[in-house]
Design a protein that fits this description.
Strand order of the largest sheet: 13-14-15-16-17-18-19
Largest sheet: 7 strands, mixed
Shape: globular
Number of strands: 20
Radius of gyration: 28 Å
Structural class: alpha/beta
Length: about 675
């Protein structure tokens, strides 16, 4: 318990350093437990580990304001970037199609700057991912290779995957080399069914394989087992570029060998390995590799009865219960179908991993993998199509605290044979989960400008009416499945009363077809549909919308922006104007014919381009707030300096999705 308490104190210190000093309050029950219940006052000295955890991140150089020459080692290498560890900090370096492998030594001449990447709502937060490596800045400059390491794997991959088709290669590469499944067409389906992790290289598969060998090797070979296990783990450390979870497994292997005569418990070994890893690289505390693995492993080791094997189904269900809040936090929805599918596919994933090991000596064996993987991916697509995710919204921090507290109490009661109390806590755990999943009957009055990168998507909500204006669009991402639908789940939106399009530009309508096929949408309207109605106004539920663009330009019909809808609505007394990509010429016509038009909130036209947002137009409508929807570092350089100057000149405050992400305004 000494090591466990030290590890727990250290983790609380890190949380206080990274998030808030209020996390130190968690030390109070730990101190009271040690001082009064255990009567071991000297153990309170281990609370000093919390202070060490708090101070440690400050000892690592941030990399801010670095310029000139730096020399460092590549600690992570991907196709278009690498992470460079140096005495001045750890930096992200963009290098397209470079061939520098892990642990190469390079020298760079340049300067550091803040991280800046394209993003969209519910998408992968690359900046946060880099921060788990201690990377807060990027370094731009000339790269000079001092030493190119021998850890490159491209030739090995080419040999191993020589008989695999593209989809099978992506799947098997994830299992063997920990490569991303992002390029896989079925990636979103795998994610929705929570199958990503079981088809990625992790300690999950390696532990299964090593446990299988230990249990089945004949007695005369058992003395060679530790050597084989060490070599096997070293090989996969190389294949995964020393991935955190594989490092954890290898460190546990070394600790078991070193302390085998002391007969330490698994809890003690896990706590010691966690302390060592976080002391060396404290920023890994922010990574999913840490908070997905260590809490679960410690949870299971603390409550696993010695001398008895857990029933597989019970163990699986407890793991599912433990990870449920993580999945709610990530997807804002749960799919009940994912639990039985995961249970059935875990043995398949183990088998696929073991069989894929044959590709190293026998690559032609891959011929058999192609139909197997194709059948599997088709099955995933089928199950995903009949899966009905339950929107969970964003339950809030109180839900997560209460959930894990009840789960911990239930396991504690079961461990001490208080079956009735344990079942009661478990029942309460499921009850609060069902409450979080309950239907949202509350009325909402708000407008949300959803971050869809370089594009437009505006959500109007009044009472129980939900209307989406435009969907955004990206060629490399299905924004409906990856951005819009996850956001609807987060807000507990079960159906859209209407999808209204301003015009046909791809960055406004690109996700339309996918959204209509994957989500409940009652009506689809275009700008021309409003022109057929009296006063160009359509009533949809509790929301009335008017299109002010009734103009067509001779000789300019090729530019669809001139036909862009300019939609006006009022929600709870707040006047809202969504202008699409309407140019200045249309703006001038609107204020000429409607001098009474005013707006409290305006979505700036054409992502802040200088072709829109005329001073006369903005001056007349007198907005309290302007919102610009555009992508970070977009190739059009939106918003333009001219538009920003106009807003400043008229003293109109503005907000931008490229800087803030999704902007939600309660009315």
């Amino acid at each position: 318990m000494i090591l466990f308490i030290s590890f727990l104190s250290f983790v609380i210190g890190l949380a206080s350093s990274f998030f808030s000093p209020f996390f130190f309050l968690l030390l109070l029950p730990l101190f009271l437990y040690l001082y009064f219940y255990r009567k071991e006052k000297k153990h309170c000295l281990f609370l000093l580990f919390s202070l060490l955890g708090f101070l440690l991140p400050f000892l690592f150089p941030s990399g801010k304001g670095v310029s000139g020459t730096i020399t460092g080692i590549i600690i992570k290498s991907k196709e278009n970037y690498f992470l460079l560890f140096s005495s001045k900090g750890t930096f992200y370096v963009y290098q397209k199609n470079h061939n520098l492998p892990f642990l190469s030594l390079v020298k760079m001449e340049g300067k550091s700057s803040s991280l800046s990447f394209s993003h969209y709502e519910s998408g992968f937060d690359f900046s946060s991912y880099l921060k788990s490596f201690g990377v807060n800045y990027q370094f731009t400059g000339k790269v000079e290779v001092i030493f190119k390491s021998f850890f490159g794997k491209e030739k090995l991959k080419e040999y191993v995957f020589s008989y695999l088709d593209d989809k099978t290669r992506t799947l098997i590469s994830s299992l063997l080399f920990s490569d991303s499944l992002y390029d896989l067409e079925e990636q979103s389906e795998l994610s929705s069914l929570n199958l990503i992790n079981i088809f990625s290289l992790s300690s999950f598969h390696l532990q299964f394989f090593l446990h299988f060998l230990r249990e089945n090797m004949e007695k005369k070979y058992k003395k060679f087992t530790p050597y084989f296990e060490g070599g096997f783990l070293l090989f996969f450390l190389y294949l995964s570029d020393f991935k955190f979870s594989i490092r954890r497994l290898f460190l546990l292997y070394l600790l078991r060998l070193f302390f085998q005569k002391k007969h330490w418990s698994r809890t003690e070994l896990l706590s010691l390995s966690g302390l060592i890893q976080l002391m060396i690289e404290p920023y890994q505390f922010l990574s999913g590799s840490f908070y997905y693995s260590y809490p679960l492993l410690l949870f299971l080791s603390l409550f696993q009865k010695q001398g008895k094997k857990r029933k597989q189904l019970i163990s699986f269900l407890k793991i599912q219960l433990f990870y449920l809040p993580f999945r709610i936090r990530e997807n804002h929805a749960i799919s009940l179908l994912s639990i039985p599918i995961s249970f059935l596919l875990i043995p398949f994933s183990h088998l696929l991993f073991v069989l894929s090991l044959l590709l190293f000596p026998l690559p032609f064996f891959g011929i058999l993998f192609n139909p197997i993987c194709q059948l599997f991916l088709k099955s995933v697509s089928f199950f995903s199509s009949i899966s009905f995710p339950i929107p969970m919204g964003d339950p809030g921090i109180l839900f997560y605290i209460l959930y894990f507290l009840l789960l911990f109490l239930s396991e504690s009661f079961f461990a001490y044979a208080f079956q009735r109390e344990g079942k009661a806590c478990l029942l309460f755990t499921l009850t609060i989960t069902l409450c979080a999943a309950s239907y949202d009957f509350l009325p909402h009055e708000e407008v949300t400008f959803i971050d869809v990168d370089q594009g437009d998507s505006t959500l109007l909500r009044s009472g129980n009416t939900n209307i989406l204006i435009d969907t955004g669009g990206r060629n490399d991402v299905d924004l409906a499945k990856e951005c819009l639908i996850p956001y609807f789940h987060k807000r507990k939106i079960y159906t859209l009363d209407a999808l209204i399009l301003t015009h046909s530009d791809f960055d406004h309508t690109g996700a339309k077809d996918s959204l209509l096929s994957s989500f409940s949408v009652k009506n689809v309207l275009e700008a021309s549909d409003f022109l057929k109605e009296e006063n160009q106004t359509i009533q949809i539920g509790d929301i009335s919308i008017r299109n002010y663009n009734i103009y067509e330009e001779e000789g300019q019909k090729a530019d669809d922006n001139y036909a862009s809808g300019v939609y006006y609505t009022a929600i709870k007394g707040k006047r809202i104007l969504v202008t699409g990509d309407a140019p200045k010429e249309i703006e001038e016509k609107i204020i000429r014919d409607h001098p009474e038009l005013r707006a409290d909130i305006v979505k700036i036209s054409h992502h802040g381009s200088n072709t829109s947002s005329s001073p006369n137009f903005l001056s007349q409508i007198q907005p309290e707030l302007a919102v610009i929807s555009c992508g970070t570092n977009n190739r059009y350089h939106h918003p333009s300096i001219e538009t920003l100057r106009t807003l400043d000149m008229l003293h109109i405050p503005y907000r931008r999705t490229d800087l803030e992400g999704t902007i939600q305004l309660s009315l």
